Amino acid sequence: MTKSLTLFARAAAAIAAIAMASPSTASAICWIERVERTKAGVKVFFGDRRPVWIIRPGQRLTIVDVDQAGSAEPASGNRPARVRWVEGVPGDLFRVQNSHHDSCRLTVARQGDKLGLWAEAQLSLPGTPSHETAKFIAAQ
Fold first, then answer.
1. Taken in order 120, 60, 72, 65, is the CA torsion positive or negative?
2. Domain total for the chain?
3. What is the pTM of this model?
């Protein structure tokens, strides 16, 4: 039984690593649907609803619930604000995760004359080697 689970976990990790490494679309990494250019930075849209930790230099950590299909709502009590996308400027950092074993670090940055996100995905399933993938996603 344990051997079957280990083989299943390794197969799942390999499939996820291949999917995350695909260069064709933004959604191939970090659950990002698209990145749009704004006047000062970028807007990041995710394919599914998810919490996003926003880390800005010199500011407090902010957590928002990103749901582009829902309506925006202010924070209330212990519930974070719901937004349709997150916006950032160069130097801002976003953290997203599916679990303790599957997460991404997104940094708003420039690469040459392009503004976008450096997406760094980490997948570390128990009993398997860690997989890390990095990709620059240019804002459109």
1. positive
2. 1
3. 0.77
